[in-house]
Amino acid sequence: MIQKSDGRLSIFKENEEIAYLIYDEYDNHLDITATFTKPEERGQGLAKELVLEAVSMARAEGKKVKGTCPYVPPVIRHKEFDDVRM
């Protein structure tokens, strides 16, 4: 389950944060600046899940998504993200 706090989305496992995404929120867009997944939890799609949640948040607020974090642009390059990609 994804938890949202100010400028951060997190995934916890047994009360330990195992993945997170950090973003800056502006009037017209979210800038995703970092993603991280603990090494032993990688390969499960957790970072992608967090990016998709950020995209969902942006859509709900009528905002775009900017991917300063290098992980993000390949995730949102597909046509289904044309409405939110900057």
Automatic annotation (TrEMBL):
Which residues, if any, are the signal sequence? Answer: none
Gene3D superfamilies per UniProt: 3.40.630.30
Q: What region holds the N-acetyltransferase domain?
A: 1-86
Q: Which GO terms describe its molecular function?
A: acyltransferase activity, transferring groups other than amino-acyl groups
- Pfam families hit by this protein: Acetyltransf_CG
InterPro entries given for it?
Acyl_CoA_acyltransferase, Gcn5-rel_NAT, GNAT_dom, GNAT_YJDJ
What is the official name of this protein in its record? Answer: Uncharacterized protein
Species source reads Aliicoccus persicus
